[in-house]
Design goal:
Order of helices and strands of chain A: HHHHHHHHHHH
Number of helices of chain A: 11
Distance between the termini of chain B: 23 Å
Number of strands of chain B: 0
Largest interface: A-B, 33 and 34 residues
Largest sheet of chain A: none
Strand content of chain A: under 5%
Structural class of chain A: mainly alpha
Number of helices of chain B: 10
Number of domains of chain B: 1
Radius of gyration of chain B: 20 Å
Radius of gyration of chain A: 19 Å
Oligomer: heterodimer
Helix content of chain B: over 70%
Strand content of chain B: under 5%
Number of strands of chain A: 0
Number of domains of chain A: 1
Shape of chain B: elongated
Structural class of chain B: mainly alpha
Order of helices and strands of chain B: HHHHHHHHHH
């Protein structure tokens, strides 16, 4: 430990590795950018009229949902990469080097956040092109981006845990794609919370994905900031603390 | 994978390779192998049963109220046929991955050195989809029943529903099989296939009625193969007309099997070194 490097310095080097790895893998780019665009277009196509008939303004409300969905997609690669690192033995190799022991975790997160940034910016630009507006000005638009990335960090740390638990990278990718579906479908993302069955409504309203989407919408002008942003921050920061702690433990135990 | 690759038809016991009986024996052997392979893969079980169920339940929870307010019918009645078709599409990705593995592991090259028609491997994989389709139909109909899906037209139509749902398995799988003969890796197979299936699913009347689409999209939605399949299943479950959707479903099925099957056969006819 004494001879090891600094957390941030080593993390930056490993972050560079993670970014190169993403940039050179077409499937990762597809997941981060192309699939969210496809979902954005298709949900607009299929649900816009039906939801607008219910007073649920898709032009303004859908982009934050797709941004959150994109954050899931970018994070899913993380599960695959972690499992792949375990298989290739590079995690064991990192441990034999004089680097900070949590640097691999930081490096991976930097790589994930770089993908998430590209993805969030592209989707939001597409949203603006189809009628979304940041009614509170550019400071809150930056807060929107920051909150999206905070959520991305929480999810990617969680997905990393799947990478440590899964037997193979392929299994990791498959398991990682499962939790996102109920979380995003049973959220305020695509339909108003009031439309869900009564017994389900409280869960839908307060689960982290809904809370984050609502806060993103509030920073763009729809909904109350005080009701949504603190709750979203609490969820995201709480998840980051828990997942990061579990992640560094898993990193130490990983073969 | 090598461990579960299963038996290859033995040249001495099988009927002469070129005869109809010989080809049937080859298809049967490969179908058995494909069936064992996917029934032992937890991923296929998840893709075939749990994922469509999850989609059914979450779509029902999220969109029932809005769609029923828009068109007035029971949403489960529309969704169960849709998820049968979408479950077959997305589930067939496993079959496509399996074929890609066979092409890359050298299994296909081994087949070429035997007196076996290479295409029978693909036909075998397609035939094995019957079993997966049956599982998907059974689970979706069973759970759909709890949420308002009903066979309103008697047991004969219900049987027709199951038969059509199961028969579509070996049809839609050809899209993935033909892409697998062109792909170089899982990364160049999975995402494009997923994108094609998403487009097919959303540009259909599977999730919402035709009137919910903007004018420019409506002609596309109307001719979509998924619309034809969903309307046929919907008709059999007790809703609409049968003859029109049945003809369109048949034409599309022939097109898919001949078109994508032909493409796959063409790719396989080239020596391994020439494939992308």
């Amino acid at each position: 430990m004494t001879a090891s490097g600094t957390l941030l310095g080593d993390g930056r080097v490993l972050g560079g590795r993670a970014m190169l790895r993403s940039a050179r893998n077409p499937a990762t780019i597809l997941g981060a950018v192309l699939f969210p665009i496809l979902f954005f277009v298709l949900f607009n196509l299929v649900m816009r009229r039906i939801m607008e008939a219910r007073g649920f303004d898709y032009a303004q409300l859908l982009p934050p949902t797709i941004v959150v969905q994109a954050m899931f997609f970018t994070a899913m690669s993380s599960a695959y990469y972690v499992a792949d690192d375990r298989r290739s033995g590079i995690i064991a190799r990192f441990r034999s080097l004089p680097i900070h022991r949590s640097a691999p975790l930081i490096g991976r997160s930097l790589g994930d956040l770089s993908r998430a940034t590209v993805s969030a910016v592209v989707i939001t630009a597409l949203g603006i092109a189809t009628g979304m507006r940041f009614e509170r000005g550019w400071v809150w638009a930056l807060a929107y981006l920051g909150l999206a990335l905070l959520f991305a960090l929480a999810v990617s740390l969680g997905m990393g845990l799947i990478g440590y638990a899964a037997p193979t990278p392929e299994a990791a990718a498959s398991i990682a794609s499962t939790p996102y579906l109920p979380l995003i479908m049973l959220s305020s993302g695509f339909a108003p919370v009031e439309d869900f069955p009564d017994w389900l409504e409280p869960i839908v309203r307060y689960q982290p994905v809904s809370v984050t989407i609502d806060a993103l919408r509030a920073t763009a002008g729809t909904g109350d900031l005080g009701d949504t942003v603190p709750l979203a921050l609490a969820w995201c920061v709480g998840l980051i603390i828990v997942f990061a702690a579990l992640g560094s433990r898993a990193l130490e135990r990983a073969a | 994978m090598t461990a579960s690759a299963g038996p290859v038809p033995s040249t001495s016991a099988a009927p002469a390779a070129g005869t109809a009986a010989g080809l049937a024996a080859q298809v049967a052997a490969f179908a058995g192998r494909a069936f064992r392979r996917f029934s032992r893969s937890s991923e296929t079980v998840v893709n075939t049963t749990i994922f469509p169920l999850l989609l059914l339940l979450t779509l029902l929870a999220a969109f029932s109220e809005a769609v029923e307010a828009f068109e007035g019918g029971e949403y489960a009645q529309r969704l169960v046929p849709t998820l049968v078709v979408s479950g077959l599409m997305f589930g067939s990705v496993g079959a496509a991955y399996g074929l890609l593995g066979d092409l890359q592991s050298g299994f296909m090259d081994r087949i070429r050195s035997l007196p076996v028609a290479p295409l029978t491997l693909l036909i075998g994989i397609a035939v094995a989809e019957l079993a997966r389709a049956l599982a998907a139909v059974a689970v979706l109909v069973g759970v759909g029943h709890l949420f308002g899906f009903r066979f309103l037209d008697g047991p004969l139509s219900a049987l027709g529903f199951v038969a059509v749902g199961v028969a579509l398995g070996p049809v839609v799988v050809w899209i993935g099989l033909s892409l697998a003969t062109m792909a170089s890796s899982l990364e160049t197979l999975g995402p494009p296939l997923g994108a094609v299936f998403l487009l097919l699913l959303f540009f259909s009347q599977g999730m919402v009625p035709l009137e919910a689409y903007p004018g420019w999209a409506q002609p596309l939605v109307r001719v979509s193969p998924i619309t034809a399949y969903v309307e046929l299943l919907d008709g059999l479950a007790g809703g609409g007309p049968l003859a029109g959707p049945a003809v369109r479903a048949l034409v599309w099925s022939v097109f898919i099997v001949v078109g994508f099957g032909g493409l796959a056969a063409y790719r396989l006819s080239k020596p391994a070194g020439d494939r992308g």
